[in-house]
């Protein structure tokens, strides 16, 4: 049986009168065959403009184009590494009129002996997955949850009807179910092109665990990337308190070249014994307790990074040298200490500059990095029974993990 032909390019010819500039939300032209088409590894040509057009081979977006300079100009997209039976063109909030769509095949590969198909390295596994939200502004379908997974990350104007918007809920949330667990490399979020501050303090959860936060959003910031390094999960949720929450796209990206093993596992999920667990006999104390942030939360086995969910310590006041101390119960040769931060608005203020010690030995100092999931310090097999995290000013940690050398 002949192997699938290779798609080398797609060309589109507009109608002589050009595109119409008003009309429905979605239209598309589909090219369907009974043959499984594939394409060789190559580059993707992406051109951007004021009019959003999406080209999809199967479920993978392979390019975007702006409105052509002349109505008769032929538009071309070079395709690489995609196997599919359908090619789809999407135009947001416009009528779409095309005189011709051509899918170009490399004839030299049609009768080849080696299958040319290669898998795209990166995939957005959230696109067109079931999405829900706490409420919908004006109960309008224009602002439905599914708009945030429609595959159009550059449509950040709410008038394009490609963004989700909640009402001003006490706890506004939006979530997408990926259908199965994936090792997530990063999450990319497109906010709206105005009212950027509405994402101030919003957080991201994966399967109920807070793993990232937006912090204080800049006045012109629309796009956000949260690196997760292969964190496994299925349900992604974005939450904001007492605010209208607008998301124009949430992309959950996986890397098909990622191979999970023990070396890529985060410390709290390592198979090595964690000696800083209350369930294992460890005890925690703190210089003080503010707003219910008890010391015991640092050793409860829950690394969720949202203080307001009740799993992080909080010590103060700001003028004091504050600390959290873990008594391991017996002397150990400590190889590493890991500190999990809070990732809401106050993460930087509550952990940057904190000193991590085993006894009097300093293992390291926290140098804050935005949305860093944890800080791991090598202690060089120092002997001790107490681990302390301390700093001048507010101090808040969400979990402490201790591993032997």
Could you characterize the architecture of this molecule?
With 405 residues, the protein is an all-beta fold. It contains 1 helix and 22 strands. Strands 8, 9, 11, 12, 13, 14 and 16 form a 7-stranded antiparallel β-sheet that branches. Strands 17, 18, 19, 20, 21 and 22 form a 6-stranded antiparallel β-sheet that branches. β19 and β20 form a beta hairpin. The longest helix has 5 residues, at 347-351.
- The count of helical stretches stands at 1
The overall average pLDDT, rounded, is: 80
Task: Give the strand content.
Answer: 35-45%
**Quaternary organisation of the protein chains:** single chain
Instruction: Report on the biggest sheet.
Output: 7 strands, antiparallel
Q: Count the beta strands.
A: 22
**N-to-C span:** 58 Å
Q: What overall form do the CA principal axes indicate?
A: elongated
Unreliable runs: 1-5, 16-53
The chain-level structural class is mainly beta
The amount of helix comes to under 10%
> What Rg is obtained from the alpha carbons, in whole angstroms?
26 Å
The SSE string, one letter per element, is EEEEEEEEEEEEEEEEEEHEEEE
């Amino acid at each position: 049986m002949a192997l699938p032909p290779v798609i080398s390019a797609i060309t589109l010819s507009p109608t002589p009168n050009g595109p119409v500039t008003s009309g429905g939300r979605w239209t598309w032209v589909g090219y369907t065959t009974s043959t499984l088409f594939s394409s060789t590894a190559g580059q993707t040509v992406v051109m951007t403009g004021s009019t959003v057009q999406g080209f999809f081979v199967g479920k993978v977006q392979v390019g975007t184009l702006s409105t052509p300079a002349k109505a008769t100009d032929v538009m071309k997209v070079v395709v690489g590494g995609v196997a599919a039976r359908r090619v789809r063109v999407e135009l947001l909030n416009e009528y779409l009129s095309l005189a011709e769509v051509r899918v170009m095949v490399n004839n030299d590969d049609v009768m080849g002996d080696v299958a040319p198909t290669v898998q795209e390295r990166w995939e957005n596994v959230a696109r067109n997955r079931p999405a829900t939200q706490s409420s919908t502004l004006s109960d309008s379908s224009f602002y439905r949850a599914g708009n945030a997974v429609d595959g159009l990350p550059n449509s950040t104007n709410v008038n394009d009807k490609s963004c989700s918007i909640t009402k001003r809920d006490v706890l506004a949330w939006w979530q997408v179910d990926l259908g199965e667990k994936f090792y997530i490399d990063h999450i990319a979020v497109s906010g709206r092109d105005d009212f950027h501050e509405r994402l101030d303090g919003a957080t991201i959860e994966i399967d109920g665990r807070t793993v990232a936060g937006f912090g204080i959003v800049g006045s012109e910031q629309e796009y956000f990337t949260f690196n997760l390094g292969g964190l496994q999960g299925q349900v992604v949720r974005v939450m904001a308190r007492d605010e209208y929450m607008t998301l124009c796209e949430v992309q959950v990206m996986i890397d098909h070249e990622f191979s999970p093993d023990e070396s890529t596992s985060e410390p709290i999920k390592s198979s090595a014994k964690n000696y800083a667990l209350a369930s294992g006999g460890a005890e925690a104390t703190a210089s003080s307790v503010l707003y219910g942030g008890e010391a015991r939360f640092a050793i409860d086995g829950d690394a969720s990074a949202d203080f307001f969910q009740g799993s992080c310590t909080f010590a103060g006041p700001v003028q004091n040298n504050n600390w959290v101390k873990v008594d391991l119960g017996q002397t150990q040769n400590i190889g590493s200490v890991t500190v999990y931060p809070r990732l809401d608005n106050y993460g930087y203020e509550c952990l940057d500059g904190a000193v991590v010690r085993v006894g009097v030995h300093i293992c390291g100092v926290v140098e804050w990095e935005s949305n860093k999931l944890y800080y791991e310090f090598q202690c060089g097999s120092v002997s001790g029974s107490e681990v302390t995290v301390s700093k001048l000013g507010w101090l808040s940690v969400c979990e402490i993990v201790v591993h032997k050398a």
